[in-house]
Predict the 3D structure of the following.
Amino acid sequence: MTKYIGILTAGGDSPGLNAAIRGVGKSALNNYGMQIIGFRDGFRGLMENRTIRLDGGELSDILTRGGTILGTSRDKPHRMPVGGKLLDMTDVIVGNYQDNHLDALVCLGGGGTQKNALRLKEKGLNIITLPKTIDNDVAMTDATFGFDTALGIATDAIDRLHSTAHSHHRIIVVEIMGHRAGWLALGAGIAGGADVILIPEIPYSVESAAEAIRERSRRGKPFSIVAVAEGAISKQEHDALLEAKKQKPSSRQKESKKAEPEDIPETQYAERTLRLAKQLEKLTGLESRVTILGHLQRGGIPSAADRLLATRLGTACTDLIHQGHYGVMVAAKGEITKPVKLEDVAGQVKTVPPDHPWVVSARRVGTNMGD
Ligand code: F6P
């Protein structure tokens, strides 16, 4: 019996999504004779039943393309903007899954998508997910596709900023994506040789960063690169937020068993980075400039490593569908891929342990981590 598979991409786009769609689709067609139906724009397209048949032609020539041929959105099944309101459209989604006679639905996404996928699994759908995000913050997998490409872009940016910072004797503060996780800022900061790296998981003291910059000046290097993750937070703010939480914990915080980095609203990232640059300027006497890499980090062609990872995960996903193994995310574990239960992934954020080997290495080469 021919199996019908739906596929969608949700959340922020990420290099490698098309490679993963191709991996799932070509493997399904070539090896198992399955039929693939793409849904446009994430869960919104599934709710509106906007489909695209992926029967071979559409899967060609997409391996190297950035973005997603399916389109994406951040809309959630249970809180979908409809007619100016946020409505629970889960039942409509379940209906469309059934009307399309799907045997399985593949959801490609980051942390939010894993949670939404679990909700649909709990409604009885055969769900299987792949981990994608440039933030590298999905739990239970060694890696997410998109991260390696973004790491290369951010590292290249730091390389370029070095020569201009050096020429003008300036501090350049470069803001790097990652939301609540510091993987991208840490990785690019190390690879690009940033002098200061600030990540959400290690609350910083501006004075400590400033002293590292002043020390460089004393050693005849009156310029510095500061790689700051968008969610980085000062010790004072961290302590103030902790205190506020103790007074009034949110339901998520009550449920959470481990210490989590504080959640800085996305709308505040840029102003906080500008403020940091001004503070460093005042404390060091060096002129400062800010570079916000933003969505550049998500654009363009995927790296070879991301194409490889996406293809590995995509083809393994099809094998699991063939075996009827659902309710899982296909994780990368060393050289192999492994299905992990959605329950073990959803709601978790893989942040940087403050004693992670990358942090240790950064410190060993003299990088200031803000503490
Ligand atoms: O989660 C991926 C990510 O790129 C984060 O690093 C960033 O904070 C966020 O998405 C930006 O989201 P948007 O696409 O809504 O601007």
